[in-house]
Specification:
Largest sheet: 2 strands, antiparallel
Distance between the termini: 43 Å
Strand content: under 5%
Number of helices: 14
Radius of gyration: 20 Å
């Protein structure tokens, strides 16, 4: 039988409501600070909805649904998504496109890209710190740099072995996840993240609630929020939370949660929030230590505006005001 750890699980719903309130305060151009919670003020936490984060918004707006999106083939679009997410850094993507033009299969040149990135990395990081990117594999040890190994892998697996074509023909998110796991450097966490990113496009169109995979951070959060899993998997615990979300909102008095233009959090968002709750509880409930990791990232206010835009198939873009932050 699943048994929640009440105090910690209540903080999970507290975090979701408070972090969403911060989102709406910024959206409505309210004055800073947007919360009186000292932990949320001091430390950096991602949005409740993954699609609202700055890198995801750039991916959706510029990489997938940019003004020339209709000029790209389905495989072009998947390549663009994958390349952006490998580095997950907006200025790296813009640097590549400023030198190569809009990226597609036609101008995907591993040697040229590798030279450009080798030059770039001498004075600026090219990978985001958001994901722990690996780059070791026996078949790629002849390539000296991590970015070259990743680019060679994309060329070999996704283009020459036609994995993009297999992804386009897939029947579920889980099937795409399994395809991605067959690639060097891509483990469970990255495979699931890439699956969701592909699914933002019109090419892949499956329900986000049809598949979930818990990442390491989310697993830590689950360990803190659930006293007994009752034999359930980490993924089942995320589904349990999703299936009982209204029950716990009422129980813990967080029924005022203001969702995203009528869209409720999906499994990827709940998975993310377990990771963020783990970080929050490192400060709020340090006695629940499941490792020796401290919360490190300090919040720094970013005043660059975001005009929010979401995958059109979600049907929420007509509800957005054009004054978003």
């Amino acid at each position: 039988m699943i048994k929640v750890r009440e105090k910690a699980f209540k903080h999970y719903f507290y975090f979701m409501e408070q972090r969403m309130n911060i989102f709406w305060a910024r959206y409505n151009n309210e004055e800073y600070p947007w919360t009186d919670d000292p932990i949320l003020l001091r430390h950096k936490f991602t949005n409740v909805y993954r699609s609202c984060d700055r890198a995801s918004q750039y991916l959706i707006q510029k990489v997938i649904y940019g003004q020339n999106a209709k000029n790209f083939s389905e495989e072009d679009t998947l390549l663009r998504i994958l390349l952006f997410k490998i580095f997950n850094k907006i200025d790296t993507w813009e640097y590549l496109e400023s030198n190569l033009g809009e990226i597609s299969l036609k101008n995907f040149d591993v040697d040229c890209m590798s030279r450009l990135l080798s030059n770039r990395i001498t004075y600026r990081p090219i990978f985001s710190a958001a994901y722990l990117m690996t780059g070791s594999h026996n078949d790629y040890t002849q390539y000296p740099s991590k970015h070259e190994r990743w680019l060679q892998m994309v060329n070999r697996k996704f283009i020459k072995e036609k994995l993009f074509s297999k992804i386009i023909k897939s029947k579920s998110l889980e099937e795409i996840f399994i395809i991605l796991l067959s690639c060097p450097f891509i483990g469970n966490f990255l495979a699931y993240q890439y699956v969701i990113d592909f699914n933002y496009s019109e090419i892949i169109n499956f329900d986000e609630n049809s598949f979930v995979k818990a990442g390491i951070g989310a697993i830590r959060g689950l360990r803190k929020c659930f006293e007994d899993s009752g034999g359930s998997s980490d993924e089942d615990l995320i589904r349990y939370t999703h299936n009982n979300i209204e029950k716990y909102r009422v129980l813990y008095d967080y029924s005022d949660f203001k969702n995203l233009f009528g869209r409720e959090p999906t499994l990827i968002d709940l998975q993310n929030c377990f990771c963020e709750t783990d970080k929050y509880l490192r400060v709020k409930m340090p006695e629940l230590r499941v490792d020796n990791i401290r919360i490190k990232q300090i919040y720094r206010q970013n005043n660059d505006n975001i005009n929010y835009f979401f995958p059109p198939k979600w049907g929420i873009n007509n509800k957005i005001k054009n004054k978003c932050v």
